Structure formats: C-alpha cells, structure tokens
Amino acid sequence: MMLFARTLVVVFLLIPTSWKKIGAKNSAIYEAEQAYIATDFEQSVRQHLGLIADHELRTPEVKFNLALSYQNNGQEEEAKKTYEEVIRSENKTLASFSANQVGVLEGRENNHKDALAYFKSALIQNPDNEMARYNYELLSRWLEENEEEKDKEEKDQEDQDKIEPSNYAKRMKAKADEFVDQYRFDEALETMQRALEIDETVAYYQNFIQYLSDVKEINDK
Questions:
Q1: Is 154 left (phi over 0), alpha (psi -120 to 50) or beta?
Q2: Which stretches in the chain have pLDDT values below 70?
Q3: What is the pLDDT of residue 176?
Q4: Which end of the chain is more exposed for a tag (fewer CB within 10 A), N or C?
C-alpha cells in the first residue's frame, strides 16, 4: 500500500512539469506565428529558430515557415538552404512549395535555367501546384522566345552554327503554338516530333520541343 501511494505521488509530481513544457511550446509556436503575421520577419526568424533549438520542433512545417521568414527578411541564401531541407522531406506538398520558392529566388538572380529546373521539380512533387505550373510555363516560353537571353546562355560558336528553320518548320511551329494555346501539349509535341523526322531544320526549335517533353513528363505523373 505504501508503494502504491509513493507511485501516485511521483506521477502527480511529473504531470505539472509536462504541462509546463507543452504550454511553453504552444506559447513559442503562437509567438512565432504572430511575428510572421505582423511582418516582423527578423523576430519571426528568431522565434522559428527557437522552436527548432529549444523545443526540437524540426518538422517540415516549421522549417518551411523559417525559410519564408528568411526570404522575407532578405536572407536569401539561408532561405534556399532551409527550403532545400524541406524539398528532401516526405511532405510532398511542402516540398513542392519549397521548390517553387527556390525557383523564384533563382529567377530573381537571373539564374533562369536553374529556376526552370526548380519549377519542374515542384510540379513533379505535386502536379496540382498551380503557381509552380504558371511559373514553369511562363519562364519556359520566355526562354524559348527571348533571343537576347539565348545569346547570353549559349556559346557564340553554337549561335553561329545554328541552322535556320525552313518555311515548313515555321509552319509546324505555328501549328504547335496553337495546340499549346489550347493546352493540347501532347499534340503539340507530336507535331514537332513528326516534323523533325522529315526536316532537320525543325531542330532550330529544340528548346521548344524540350519544353513540350518536360510538360508531358509532368502531366504523365
């Protein structure tokens, strides 16, 4: 009987300590949320770092919020590193959002091909991520159409050796563009591939063909 009584005393002594930890953790989570809502991003960074260091909350949700705080606080490199951790997590939704955010950061630094790769990764992680889809399609078309950007990213020798498209190739490209405008990407890709079989100058539009192939890969997921 005495042993039973002592056991009860120990249990009752432990419960308040547990409550205090839970209360402190919930309070820290609330303060981190409020700092972000108030757009005090420096404080939001501090609060979210505290959630990880003091309360061992290393969930993808906490890290994603930390990355957003870093990004809005002007700490782009720290934001990228933290987003990368979320991209490697099993939470596909947050992994997709994180890949899209890194794509935005890379795009702002004019790393357009890297940005495109991240937008594609975001869509592979979650094909329903409409913001990533919009960013991917917009940047893809811009890269394909913007000759000035091509000149920067391609070697001078490759530009000199680039073949000129025949009138047939131009017609097929225009036809494929019509399919794209109707979101009929598979038909656009088939049009370009079939044209390439009989006219090597269709290769002039290789970036466009690759874009269509990437979209098909994403849609097939």
A1: beta
A2: 1-28, 30, 32, 35-36, 55, 147-162, 221
A3: 93
A4: N
Task: Give me the pLDDT at residue 39, please.
Answer: 72
Q: Which residue has the tokens 């609060």?
A: 47
Q: What is the DSSP letter of 126?
A: -
Residue 65 lies inside a defined structural domain of this protein: no
Does a structural domain hold residue 31? no
Structural domain for 215, as ranges:
165-221
Global pTM reads 0.59
Burial 85-94 (b: 16+ CB within 10 A, else e): bbbebebeeb
Tens digit of pLDDT for each residue in 189-210? Answer: 999 999 888 888 888 888 899 9
Residue 15: its pLDDT value, please? 42
Neighbours of 120 (CB within 10 A): 21
Q: How many domains does the chain have?
A: 1
How far from 26 is each of 16, 29, 30, 55, CA to CA, in Å?
A: 15, 5, 6, 10
